[in-house]
Design a protein that fits this description.
By secondary structure, the chain is of the alpha+beta class. The chain is built from 13 helices and 9 strands. The two termini are about 55 Å apart.
Length: about 350
């Protein structure tokens, strides 16, 4: 919330312009935009020792209507003025949507250091801007057509109040959608989102993480071996929606929100194999990506444990496999792709 509070000065600049434009005309609106924009620019220059180009461009952008209102006093250009202004909005929005522009760079300078958006958040923002872009294009076309085909009163309504109504409905629909999503995912398991170094960046519902969104989330894997260097594998339940019946790493599961790696490892080991006491050493971490998900895997090796007792719906059975058995079945749709990938790394840590 504190991040978005810092955006209020820039949002206030836009609000001042629209209020002044609606009640006093575009020329007065432009003057108000210049005053508020200059104030924000000077504040950023004095406080942060930085020239904020975003504020300058925004202020200049809102001066255009005032300039046009003086230049196009009467005639067809005055009737087309709202459409011309809104066309510039469409172009600006289109650039943000259809180019590789870093959306955080469009924020005021004093906000950029506090806004760190994940890939998923940026994708959501671009999709939202895309809807807004098409809405503006549709309305702009209506403004130009009404200027030629409709009476002045109707054209004025379309170019002014109708735009505010459409934008208001747009944001109300976003609010309603967010409320619906919050209700939908309220009872679902949420997973932490991380960057490639494991730093928490947010959280998301499990179904979203497994939907092909490629939101990076952390998991733990535990490999179990016996004195003969055989590797214990679990057979995934046929009830699983992903790779049912495949043989997989002894233990694998998500790290929960606010849960430490070691805590998740102990919990998953007990839930899947019934092991209550064991010793494990870390093998490292890596990123595993499949068509459905993207995981930051923290891998461990266990050689000492009390006993294995499988009694849950996630695992059908489990047993130790020799290296010869495993290598004979690799690539035969017997194991999960993730295990086959990790198996070669595991070999480096086993005694020959």
């Amino acid at each position: 919330m504190n991040k978005f509070i810092k955006l209020l000065p820039s949002l206030l600049l836009i609000a001042i312009y629209f209020i002044a434009d609606e009640f006093f005309g575009p020329f007065v609106g432009a003057i108000c935009a210049i005053i508020s924009g200059a104030g924000e620019f000077l504040y950023t220059r004095i406080r942060y020792k930085k020239n904020d180009r975003t504020v300058l461009l925004t202020t200049l952008f809102f001066c255009i209507p005032g300039i046009l209102s003086v230049w196009a006093d009467g005639g067809i250009w005055e009737k087309l003025q709202p459409g011309i202004i809104e066309t510039s909005f469409c172009i600006l929005t289109g650039i943000l949507v259809y180019t590789r522009t870093d959306l955080t760079e469009t924020l005021p300078a004093f906000c950029q250091q506090d806004f760190h958006l994940s890939a998923g958040q940026l994708r959501t923002m671009r999709n939202t801007l895309k809807i807004l872009f098409f809405l503006l294009c549709f309305h702009t076309a209506g403004v130009f057509l009404s200027a030629f085909l409709l009476p002045v009163s109707a054209a004025s309504f379309i170019s002014g109040p109708l735009l505010y109504i459409l934008i208001g409905l747009f944001f109300l629909s976003l609010l309603a959608r967010n409320k619906w999503l919050a209700w939908r995912y309220a009872k679902e398991e949420w997973l932490p989102l991380v960057d490639e170094k494991g730093n928490i960046t947010g959280q998301a519902p499990r179904s979203i993480c497994h939907s092909g969104s490629k939101l990076l989330h952390p998991v733990v894997h535990l490999h179990i071996t016996n004195p003969g260097n055989e590797i214990f594998l679990q057979k995934r339940s046929m009830k699983k929606d992903l790779l049912p019946g495949r043989w997989d790493t002894a233990v694998g599961g998500h790290i929960g929100v606010n849960e430490k790696i070691e805590e998740a490892l102990k919990r998953e080991t007990f839930e899947e194999l019934g092991i209550t006491s064991f010793e494990a050493r870390p093998l490292g971490n890596y990123i595993w990506e499949s068509p459905r998900e993207k995981e930051l895997v923290f891998s461990f090796l266990c050689t000492r444990y009390d006993r294995i007792r499988i009694d849950n719906d996630e695992v059908d059975e489990g047993r130790f496999w020799s290296r010869e058995e495993i290598e004979k079945n690799i690539g035969q749709a017997c194991f999960t792709p993730n295990f086959e990938h990790e198996y070669h790394t595991l070999l480096k840590h086993l005694h020959h």
